[in-house]
Design a protein that fits this description.
Elements lengths: L7 H8 L2 H9 L6 H11 L4 H16 L4 H19 L2
Helix pairs in contact: 1-2, 3-4, 4-5
Length: 88
């Protein structure tokens, strides 16, 4: 967001509320399909950019026999990856 000159308050009207936006940015709440579509329209990017990580994490959790720690590490890595991708 910083690279685009945006602040959290600039996205409040897209997300819906300051609290919801804060929860998404802090990682306490995931981006829903509805929010992904709103962000897609605002940034004129494919919606998949915003919700693909949810699909990947869900697949990993369902199909894995990994320990909880490995799943947490994978989620963190995916969130970090998409944060970097979206910053360009």
């Amino acid at each position: 967001m910083e690279e685009l000159g945006l602040k959290a308050k600039d996205l409040e009207h897209i997300i819906g509320s300051k609290g919801h936006l804060s929860s998404i940015l802090s990682g306490r709440r995931e981006i829903t399909l509805k929010v992904a579509l709103k962000l897609k329209n605002y940034f004129q990017l494919p919606a998949e950019m915003f919700y693909l990580h949810l699909i990947l994490v869900d697949c990993i959790e369902k199909a894995s026999q990994l320990s909880k720690l490995k799943i947490v590490r994978i989620k963190f890595t995916l969130k970090l990856y998409f944060t970097i991708v979206l910053s360009f």
